[in-house]
Predict the 3D structure of the following.
Amino acid sequence: DTEVTQTPKHLVMGMTNKKSLKCEQHMGHRAMYWYKQKAKKPPELMFVYSYEKLSINESVPSRFSPECPNSSLLNLHLHALQPEDSALYLCASSQNPGQGRGGEQYFGPGTRLTVT
Amino acid sequence: GEDVEQSLFLSVREGDSSVINCTYTDSSSTYLYWYKQEPGAGLQLLTYIFSNMDMKQDQRLTVLLNKKDKHLSLRIADTQTGDSAIYFCAPWGSQGNLIFGKGTKLSVKP
């Protein structure tokens, strides 16, 4: 099973809402990532969890709050978002965190988020 | 800072070879990756090359690395319409993360 799943596929939320994005992998990977991708742009790294601990936070605003309940699950909690946060949010996982082969990442299909 | 440059567009005819080029600045990159993204989808790892290699072939894909010039290329032989997508060059950066180029949109005409 080389699949990373993400739910929901689409999400529309108001600026006062609280919602969560979910990501799951069953490949036994020890690193999980959140990326944000705007239209016609490359993915931008947001957070990295390595062995269930937050290892990289790319200066992401606190209205985005990641959580890694166990080695297979990764959540992104959203609160008080702005319209400019509308984007495709991608989750990825890799076997080898923090090393060159850490770039061998498996991506989920993403959650298309629209903030109104 | 670390930077990765790619041309934004490439158009080829079905059956031809496609060559997507990339230049990068981080000479310490140990692994260099190519990812493919189809419309509305996540990224798919295509292939990678270790920095002590000059070439790697994987079926229709050939990766060439000129480490001295920090130049990476991806050649797709016998390009098919299903190869139409955006291709990202992504060296592994010194901060322990992928550094993505802006992506090259490959259009394959029948």
